[in-house]
Amino acid sequence: MDARTLDLLKQASTATISTQLLSRGLRNTFLHGVKPLTDRRMAGPAFTLRYIPAREDLDVLSVYQDYDHPQRKAVETVPEGHVLVMDCRGQGRAASAGAILAKRLEVRGAGGLVTDGTLRDTPAIETLDLPVYAQGASPLTNLAQHHAVDINVPIGCAEVAIYPGDILVGDGEGVVCVPQELATEVAEAAYEQERLEEWIAAEIATGKPLRGTYPPDRTTLERYHQQRTSG
Ligand SMILES: O=C([O-])CC(=O)C(=O)O
Ligand SMILES: [Mg+2]
């Protein structure tokens, strides 16, 4: 993904982006219930990790002795700038990762960490530079409920389909998934929409009514374009 597209998406709000996706027919793109833990904007390609339900005979603490355990391997292989997205089936009784793994992602230059489950060590995670999004906190380690199986396959996260390489964008409201092939046109359109809406908000602040202003009618749009080309 080119740097300009990622840059534009990072500046745009998830509200604007979800409107742009809706206008292209995509309604289910926002990861409902997944909230920011750090105050960092995010835009990067998805690198996925899929969990299935844990089973007591397999998911025991000694599995962490294996450095190739898929959860650990995902953290060590996510490419720079990519967002590690975890499918926990929306289940949050046990955490999908903790502060040491999150720190490792930050140090390795990952673009972010997203889970539809929970995280542990959240007071430490909240101090990181990494964009992090989760449904909340749970101190139990992942294998109490989750078994990591696949890396970089299509997953569901908060009931949204996420394919490796789709662009995940995060702001203060949460995370939206932009299909890879739409990323560039959505980024450009989101930028234009936000410039126009900034201008409309200023008009509303001066006392203009909604009718004719929001959405803008032809006369208002003409005024916007005139002011934009003259200034
Ligand atoms: O067990 C885990 O999820 C890993 C953990 O606590 C950490 O990364 O600090
Ligand atoms: Mg920990």
Automatic annotation (TrEMBL):
It catalyses: oxaloacetate + H(+) = pyruvate + CO2; 4-hydroxy-4-methyl-2-oxoglutarate = 2 pyruvate. This is Putative 4-hydroxy-4-methyl-2-oxoglutarate aldolase. Catalyzes the aldol cleavage of 4-hydroxy-4-methyl-2-oxoglutarate (HMG) into 2 molecules of pyruvate. Also contains a secondary oxaloacetate (OAA) decarboxylase activity due to the common pyruvate enolate transition state formed following C-C bond cleavage in the retro-aldol and decarboxylation reactions. Belongs to the class II aldolase/RraA-like family. Its cofactor is a divalent metal cation. Homotrimer. Its EC number is 4.1.1.112, 4.1.3.17. It is an enzyme of class 4 (lyase). InterPro entries: RraA/RraA-like, RraA/RraA-like_sf. PANTHER family: 4-HYDROXY-4-METHYL-2-OXOGLUTARATE ALDOLASE 3-RELATED, BLR3842 PROTEIN. It comes from the Bacteria. Residues 210-231 are annotated as: Disordered. Pfam families: RraA-like.
